[in-house]
Amino acid sequence: MNLLVKPSAPLRGTLILPGDKSISHRAVIFGCMAHGVTTIENLLEAEDVLRTVKIFKQLGVDIKRVKTKRRVVWKIKGKGLAGFKAPRGVLYCGNSGTTMRLMMGLLSGLPFKSRLTGDDSLNRRPMDRVVRPLMQMGADIRSIRKNRERIIMINGKSLHGMRYRSPVASAQVKSALLLAGLTHQEKISVQEPVLSRDHTERMLAGFGVDVARRGLRVDLGKQRKLRGQRVIVPGDPSSAAFFVVGALINPHATTQLKLRRVGLNPTRIGFLTILEKMGGTIKVQKRRLICGEPVGDLVVKPCRLHPVSVQGKIIPSLIDEIPILTVAMSQAAGTSSFQGVGELRVKETDRIETLQANLPRYGIDMASRQNSFWIKPRQLRGNIGKSFGDHRIAMSLAILGTVAPGSSWVMQTECIKTSFPQFFACLQSIGVKFKLFKRKTL
Ligand code: S3P
Questions:
Q1: Of the chain's two ends, which shows fewer C-beta atoms within 10 Å, N or C?
Q2: Ligand 1 neighbours (beta carbon < 6 A)
Q3: What positions carry a catalytic annotation?
Q4: Is 442 a member of any domain?
Q5: pTM recorded for the entire structure
């Protein structure tokens, strides 16, 4: 599907965003590992999370989607780790790095064999970062390649303890190791160079696990048995970011968007800090805690934005929002930059490359060197952009199209359903003018 989008009238309205992707994966995983019933409200029903759900069904867990008049609830009847059975076929993770890496951790410590694979993009992404430490814990993991397909073969067995200092700030690495640690009783501690998103630690505590964070280190204590819980998933701040930027850069003074019940975990909202540094004013209302996660409502109006340079410790807290932040930077008078963002090279696409293949076409200069890049707006104009199968690139280009003079196309938008199937419905409800075509029609 290809998107044709034009500069819009004022953007106005209230959005309730779908559930956070990272938290949704964890709610399903922990619910399946727990003893007793777990219910999940506002679970993100996007392709990536549904891959995780399907894998646990293959492992024999009873998971049901229950629709009542008022809401949808996912109900999991957890039987603990002993309730899992050996899966028959290969476990397919699609485009979802979180599914693959977290499952590798858990499956390594369960007493059966399993195989994991993904789509072409996922099969190219680095898994060494989890395989190496898991092998240090005694895991038996091999990766084999058949043409473009990669299959991760896991011969599950009992693992031993480890103190691990991760060279990357990655919540997927940290979580994979903690999941492996939950399958045994030995000492487990994981330290990262900069704090990555901490949903795993927060939610494990909610499920009754003894987990302690000391600075950049997380330790598992003796109590590692999970008890079923009621989980309410906050709105995804990474999805909110597209609309926050869309409203900030909209040229109409009457634009105003309200985004309700957005997750505001400090390890996720670096993008708000950067947008504020650029001169954006984003009001936060009704701050509260839901299931151990901070949430609030965001109110956004257009603002004049200034260039900014982004580097250092803040990077992990905005890593998924870099594509949409470049769209904000394209509206600032001057050169903005990102430094030390090498992790972008191993996301769903090499995002430095896919941004570079798109932004100059819209009259935005971009230069890159190794793990840094610079953005300088020249003369913004609509053009044809391509997602390269990367959901966050597709949505960022769609937002760019709401301000780029003329018409803009975004080719290959199907990938958006991996994280945000309601994206187009949200765009429509706030007044963005667009059409979707099965094939490109210029
Ligand atoms: C995620 C962690 C991040 C993030 C990804 C989701 C998670 O990846 O980019 O979209 O749910 O743990 P890394 O762990 O590779 O940084």
A1: C
A2: 22, 25, 98, 170-172, 175, 196-197, 319-320, 343
A3: 320
A4: no
A5: 0.98
